[in-house]
Amino acid sequence: MTSTLGIDLGSSIRSAAIRELDPLAADKLCFDMRRQNEDADVPALVSALRSLVPTLDDVAGYSPEECVAAMRDLGMFLGSIKKHGPEPVPFVPEVTPVLLELGRRTDMVPRDTVHHYTTWNPTGGRQRMYCGDIQEAYLQESVRMVFPHLREGLELAGILSDMDVDDPKFGVLTDELTGHVETMVSSIDMVVANVSPVFFARGLRAYFEEITVDGRVLLGPAAAQVPLWLIDQAVWASDRSEPGYQEFLRDSVPYSLPRWRELYEHWTAVPSVVSRLVAAYGDDPEETERRVPALRASSEALARLLRVIVVFRGRHLGIARKAYDADLRLYPVGSGGASVDLLRRITDLTRATARLTGRRSAGAAAASTEDSGARASGCAHASAGASGCAHASAGAAADAAAGAERAERRSA
């Protein structure tokens, strides 16, 4: 998973190395920033940012990993100043060429992203935090814990996107992908248990506001930059989405790692996995499964994956409804630009896709059951037992979709 840099800044080894780096000698200033934010001390924040800005000659001597660490620390002050009202760059104009060069050197946007705020952020006493509240630490950890799994999951999605849906390995790899995606559910459970909607909506959200760099409006380090949407794109959204979600994806892509941008471009140009599965079943699913038995395992595995995604989407929607309630919110949309209504529509689209996938295997299996029962007419009890077992198996994929819907309703 490399980029035009020839290295993978998102790998576990490089991420750990970046967390240790402090090229701007910013440790103390970043710690002091918490108090300055509490006091809304914009002059102190501006002074600190100005003292941290390196020269372009300094940047020329940085490794790519040091460029990431420098962007991380500059970004914390940019977001802090914007939280308290003013656009930050005009206060320290000399930061503009540095941000542009750091972005060029790392092949990323010229400001900090969710990767800088979480994965590339030190832990322990050196952790960069806007507030220093334990709830902020939980929010950072909830994102940090999923990135290694999503990174592996995206590579698996790349394999599945190029693999025939009737390949016997398709179901196995899809279940492996599901295991990685399940960490998203654990992550959202951590947020529900440890981060109050009031803290996020009225305490932390404002630090993730957009800023303008060299005439370009750039979003802050939003959770929307966590690329579950990219797995959506491979599995179903490339050709089964809706205009609002497509626009949201296009707006989110620039904040991704270079390799993930490549995957998005590729998956946007090819049929989704779900569409290929539907096409493989054709107009006569039961006959297709007789000829290609491996399709049953593929469709059931895909239904299991979609069920996990729907459960996550439902819990995320429940949090968003609370954080962006009209009586609580300070902003009408999330820091990534998504409204609660868009999140609801995405959840509905995912649920509908799960139902579609479940019906394929369920319908074919039910037809197979009826055929087997007719051939076994000489033994009524045996026929009844076989029919019951087969219908239970046939409903497994459909139950996955229905179970996801129930879980979504409970969580929302």
UniProtKB/TrEMBL annotation:
| Name of this protein | DUF1864 family protein
Output the InterPro entries linked to this UniProt entry. Answer: PrnB (IPR015029), Trp/Indoleamine_2_3_dOase-like (IPR037217)
Question: Could you tell me which SUPFAM superfamilies the record lists for this protein?
Answer: Indolic compounds 2,3-dioxygenase-like
Q: Which residues form a coiled coil?
A: none
User: What is the superkingdom listed in this entry's lineage?
Assistant: Bacteria
Classification via Pfam families: PrnB
